[in-house]
């Protein structure tokens, strides 16, 4: 009965796919993903952008758009490297060609109905998944097709979605519908044409770099450092001038803590584990940043 209801609802609200269907933007977009295996492992962040300098690569005559991947591990940022390539066939399907792989594989398929089964879908590992539900959501004043997935070995909603124009809620490439011993990812920010589509400040201007802690402003002569003390759940800040505004951004890019310097150490007991960004705005308007990791 539940499955029949889903089919009926999907039949009423499903967006009809036409000759032109943009599943993902193919330029000027960015995705920031938070990833954590679990206790004892480092917190990782991935920031994907399209390669604007050398944008294309070709597979069997089909042009794929190259991705650049910048990685952050426990606050240390590593230079961007080739992260594979995407192809949107404008019929609802997106393929991913991983670095070193012989052939591309299916990444997303929006031309589906509840009950459809998709085989060998890319994620943390190849997936056989079933479509649980299809609907539309309005994000940033745009109606988008949304596909909820379920594992073939289980039945019921998972909360894992593909969203047209945005990607997967677990990360651009990090889907793990059937669970994973290798950790789980979360899409914390996505932008297109310098406008936030997913995450903090949807509809605002941004490139998602701040969510990974990559948007560091040039440092002033007075160095800014942040020293977390896990045993006391406190953050000691060195270099903040009197009267400066202190803001701590969490792994999702949202403000998690705000204070005025100097106030002594900051209580970070309520912060979630992961990479955080401390932003200090001095009374003269100068902005400085420092990263730290909450264990």
Brief sketch in words of this structure:
The chain has 295 residues and is mainly β. It contains two helices and 21 strands.
Beta-strand percentage? over 45%
How much helix is in the residues? under 10%
Task: State Rg.
Answer: 21 Å
Query: What summary fits the major beta sheet?
Result: 9 strands, antiparallel
Task: Tell me the series of helices and strands, N- to C-terminal.
Answer: HEEEEEEEEEEEEEEHEEEEEEE
- Low-confidence stretches are 4-19, 213-221
**Structural classification:** mainly beta
Number of helices: 2
Silhouette: globular
In total, how many domains does the architecture comprise?
2
Distance between the termini: 46 Å
Number of strands: 21
Arithmetic mean of pLDDT? 82
Q: Which short descriptors sum up this protein?
A:
single chain; 295 residues; mainly beta; Immunoglobulin-like; 2 domains; nine-stranded antiparallel sheet; five-stranded antiparallel sheet; 21 strands
